[in-house]
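Please decode residue identities from the backbone states below.
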């Protein structure tokens, strides 16, 4: 009877483990399909196009009329045209593509809503209980929100959890729990004061382990 019980337990555990979706930070960003003509350019072409746009704006605004600037504008135009780049078309798409990229960077992946996930990240404590962390932001890199600007909302997960010890800010942990699409703003104490940090995801009552430790 004991062996049967252990076998059933093993089956249930295995099934539960398979139900947990191992995700990366890139999975939190939805794949929004749109035609981005700038992706077809080489790095040099992007650099030339950016410089040309800057020069044309300065010239049109009357902020430069030097021979050097005018010569460089003509050379860039000639080089890009010879490479088959449709300059005016791309310039007309700059604002549209920028807006789509910004929208994509802030969008949430609805396919992950209410799914059991496991992921790794760095812990930024928000609330303690008996000197142990019970609420925090999970972020993708060390120093996010503190030493660097906050990541976009879809790269921050707000987490409440069992109390756990942390030795230093931004310890590397992995968490497991039900991921939900919840927009939350938290006030964070920064080196130069406080600031609001926005998150698009939340996990409540998460299990938390050091990165190299396994869940039971």
């Amino acid at each position: 009877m004991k062996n049967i019980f252990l076998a059933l337990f093993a089956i249930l555990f295995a099934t539960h483990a398979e139900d947990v979706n191992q995700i990366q930070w890139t999975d939190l960003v939805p794949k929004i399909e749109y035609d981005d003509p700038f992706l077809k350019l080489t790095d040099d072409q992007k650099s030339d196009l950016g410089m040309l746009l800057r020069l044309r704006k300065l010239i049109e605004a009357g902020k430069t009329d030097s021979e050097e600037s005018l010569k460089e504008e003509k050379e860039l135009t000639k080089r890009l045209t010879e490479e088959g780049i449709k300059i005016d078309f791309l310039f007309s798409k700059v604002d549209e593509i920028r807006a789509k990229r910004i929208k994509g960077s802030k969008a949430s992946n609805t396919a992950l809503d209410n799914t059991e996930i496991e992921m790794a990240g760095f812990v930024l404590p928000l609330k303690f209980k008996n000197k142990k962390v019970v609420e925090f932001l999970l972020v993708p890199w060390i120093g996010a929100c503190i030493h660097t600007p906050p990541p976009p909302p879809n790269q921050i997960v707000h987490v409440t959890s069992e109390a756990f010890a942390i030795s230093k800010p931004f310890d590397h942990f992995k968490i497991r729990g039900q991921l939900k699409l919840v927009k939350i703003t938290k006030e964070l104490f920064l080196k130069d004061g406080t600031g609001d940090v926005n998150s698009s995801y939340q996990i409540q009552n998460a299990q938390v382990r050091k990165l190299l430790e396994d869940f039971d």
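Observation: The longest strand covers residues 172-190.
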